[in-house]
Amino acid sequence: MPSQKQAAPKLGAHMSIAGGVDRALERGARIGCEAIQMFLKNNLCWRAPALSREVIDRFREGRKTMRVFAHSSYLINLGVPDARSVAALVEEMHRAELLGVPFIVLHPGSHLGAGEAAGLESVVRQLEAVFAATRSSPVRIALETTAGQGTCLGHRFEHLAVIFQSCNHPTRLAICVDTCHLFAAGYDLRTRRGYEAVMREMDAVIGHKQVVAFHVNDSKTPLGSHLDRHEHIGKGFLGLEAFRCLLRDPRWQGVPMVLETPKGHDLRADVENLRLLRSLL
Q1: Distance from C-alpha of 108 to C-alpha of 139, rounded to nearest angstrom
Q2: Which of 3, 58, 148, 248 could make an S-S bridge to 155, C-beta 3.0–4.6 Å?
Q3: φ, ψ for residue 178, nearest 5 deg
Q4: CA 191 – CA 115 distance, rounded (Å)
Q5: How many Å apart are CA 212 and CA 234, to the nearest integer?
Q6: Torsion angles phi and psi, residue 257, rounded to 5
Q7: What CA–CA distance (Å, rounded) separates 245 from 225?
């Protein structure tokens, strides 16, 4: 078993940007986050006011002390032709570049009944449009594994492999693995044997080196439910052994792992979940 020093990932949580994007850094630092995920603008709006130079400078200074990455707006859906989604993602890429955020986590999208093949083709075509509009940007898109609810794409490793293989700019893509989503999609991580089998499959299909972040969430629903319902660590159907295996896996040394578990304004739930995760190291 690797030592804590060798295998330790960077732990943290998704943080609110209420009051300004730089406030997310303050909230994360207050509860001892080594990494945070955040939205780049109001998640329920297509557009957002421009970032001021003052906010950009304050954010860039604050992010020096922790790993920071972003999550795209849930309004964006590349699984069907949608110029508004392309424009919104381009805007988020620009905001990320201004702030020095290295990648944006993106749900691949929903095909809305058109079928998986058509949906994946749409994702690739619109990602190419985004990359064409941001040619000089260093910001990557980290495709998130999904639970497969409804017509959502990305609940099989093969979906992500198709996108990587079909895209003309695969180096601008990466992967964000969500533990709850994997489990809900049917990947059984509950035992060491199961965990290793899932990781071998992921490595064979898309390559573990493509993974740049994890969402560490337990699941409110059973294996293969295809329901996206996050639960506090150790209190769901996934259980603690999956997280123990994940945290001690040397492949993820230094990789940011953030909570998206239920929380209140006081962040006590995040503090408790982080304490539990660190105890598993």
Answers
A1: 17
A2: 148
A3: -105, 120
A4: 33
A5: 24
A6: -130, 120
A7: 22
Site of tokens 């972040």: 213
Cα 144 to Cα 99: distance, rounded to the nearest angstrom: 22
Q: Phi and psi dihedrals of 139, rounded to 5?
A: -75, 135
- Among the listed residues 82, 68, 176, the one whose alpha carbon sits nearest the alpha carbon of residue 130: 82
Pairing between β-strand 140-144 and β-strand 218-219 as defined by DSSP bridges: unpaired
Contacts of 268 (CB under 8 A, 6+ apart): none
Query: Residues 73-91: pLDDT tens digits?
Result: 999 999 999 999 999 999 9
Collapse the DSSP code of 105 into the 3-class scheme (helix H, G, I; strand E, B; otherwise coil) and give the result.
Answer: strand
What's the distance, CA 112 to chain centroid? 22
**Other beta carbons less than 10 A from residue 143's beta carbon:** 26
CATH superfamily of 4-280: Divalent-metal-dependent TIM barrel enzymes (3.20.20.150)
d(CA 244, CA 249): 9
pTM of the entire predicted model: 0.95
DSSP state of 63: G
Alpha-carbon distance values, 270 to 26, 183, 184, 201, 281 (Å): 15, 21, 22, 31, 17
Going from N- to C-terminal start, the domains of the chain cover: 4-280
Question: How many Å apart are CA 270 and CA 33, to the nearest integer?
Answer: 10
d(CA 159, CA 162): 5
CA separation for the pair 280, 273 (Å, rounded): 11
Cα separation of 160 and 175, whole Å?
A: 8
CB atoms within 10 A of CB 41: 21
pLDDT digits (tens, 9 = 90+) for 225-270: 999 999 999 999 999 999 999 999 999 999 999 999 999 878 999 9
- Tokens 């590349």: give the residue: 78
